[in-house]
Write a structure and sequence with these properties.
4-stranded antiparallel beta sheet, 377 residues, alpha/beta, Aspartate Aminotransferase, domain 2, binds pyridoxal-5'-phosphate
């Protein structure tokens, strides 16, 4: 009998989700608006520390609306971290704009401030000033925000913060999701908390968040009949799903502690393996450790690669996953410009995400560690 499947990152409910969902049913608020949506938005904004939040149907929808509101259109350039999930970059294409990919720096694995500066300098000199910069906090690790925000400010380009993986993380004591002109969260099933599917757009600018709600509800002008002066979207979060989110938000800090404890465990039992290194947390940063990630250098590990480990874990019914394949290496983005060196490529060549759910048991974790240690013997 194979043992139970261990997932990379699966939903972990608290019990209270159902209370809020039940309320939605009892009051017949089964619609993409309602009391759970309003409360979830307030609770999110207050947790993250922004003035406003709009609950949306996905993180991708939030990124798309951010670009729409910044006026990104055909022919515009948008600079975007290359080392990320495709959802960071796809909305640039929805707008008919051109993505320009930027390498990562080796400490946090996020957007490299130097490569970003070079690109902004060159495009500005050519009078092709980019419309926005999209930076990501991969696996929950805060980007080098001081440097990145300073570069964006210098060139007057708004920063869109893709904090989809980073709810609960902070930088210099301030929660991620509060650093962008517009910031994005995701509540997909595999994220640190989930609404089954959903996302949010956050900002201190009330006008922008009101506009996001308007665009996300089919851009209906205020008139008794249906009148439209702009193109709208159907991007609002369901009141049922928002109920799940409210229950999840109550246990977010516990989930962060559980994920951080996974990371601590893995570093304790795997750090001595030759060629194995972990994603590091700088002193000014606090990561939610959404996923615990390692790199394996086959030159030091005796030829063992991330794929050796992944396949061995798979045989034991355990899911692990390579690090994101950089966007500038993706077939669909092959003609997009790229600035930087080989940091993102190197991480992709050597990296693996270990099972990291907040619901992993001690037994699960020791099983995983034992399998990996045995491989290295
Ligand atoms: C999950 C994710 C998204 C997209 O969020 P969805 O809610 O799945 O649309 C965007 N960016 C990053 C970095 C993500 O991990």
């Amino acid at each position: 009998m194979p043992q139970d499947k261990i997932w990379l990152s699966s939903p972990h409910l608290s019990g209270n989700e159902f209370k809020y969902v039940q309320e939605a049913f009892d009051t017949n608020w089964v619609a993409p608006l309602g009391p759970n949506v309003n409360a979830f938005e307030d609770e999110l904004a207050s947790y993250v520390g922004t003035a406003h939040a709009a609950a949306l149907s996905s993180g991708t929808a939030a990124l798309h609306l951010a670009l729409v509101m910044l006026g990104v259109g055909p022919g515009d350039l948008v600079l975007c971290q290359s080392f990320t999930f495709a959802a960071s970059a796809n909305p640039i294409m929805y707008q008919g704009a051109t993505p320009v990919f930027i390498d990562s720096e080796p400490t946090t694995w996020n957007i490299c401030p130097d490569a970003l500066k070079t690109a902004l300098e060159k495009y500005t000199a050519r009078e092709q000033k980019p419309k926005a910069v999209i930076g990501v906090h991969l696996y929950g690790m805060p980007a080098r925000l001081d440097e990145v925000l300073a570069v964006c400010a210098k060139y007057g380009v708004p920063f869109i913060e893709d904090a989809a993986e980073a709810l609960g993380s902070s930088y210099r004591g301030q929660k991620l999701g509060s650093f962008g002109s517009l910031s994005v969260l995701s509540f997909n099933g595999n994220k640190i908390i989930t609404t089954s599917g959903g996302g949010a757009l956050l900002s201190n600018d009330e006008a922008l968040i009101n506009q996001a709600r308007f665009l996300a509800t089919q851009a209906r002008d205020s008139a008794p009949h249906y009148q439209h002066s702009q193109i709208g979207y159907n991007y609002r979060l369901s009141n049922v799903c928002a109920g799940i989110g409210r229950g999840q938000l109550e246990v977010l800090d516990e989930r962060v502690a559980q994920r951080r404890s996974n990371y601590d465990y893995y570093t304790q039992v795997l750090s001595d393996l030759p060629g194995v290194t972990f994603q590091q947390e700088p002193a000014d940063s606090f990561s939610n450790r959404w996923l615990s990630c390692i790199t394996i250098d086959p030159a030091s590990s005796g030829g063992i690669t991330w794929e050796t480990v992944r396949l061995r874990l798979e045989e034991e019914n355990i899911e692990s996953r390579p690090l994101w394949k950089p966007m500038h290496l993706q077939p669909v983005f092959q003609s997009a410009p790229y600035w930087g060196g080989r940091v993102a490529e190197g991480l992709f060549e050597q990296g693996l995400c270990l099972p990291s759910g907040s619901n992993l048991t001690d037994h699960d974790r020791s099983r995983i560690a034992e399998i990996i240690r045995t491989l290295f013997k």
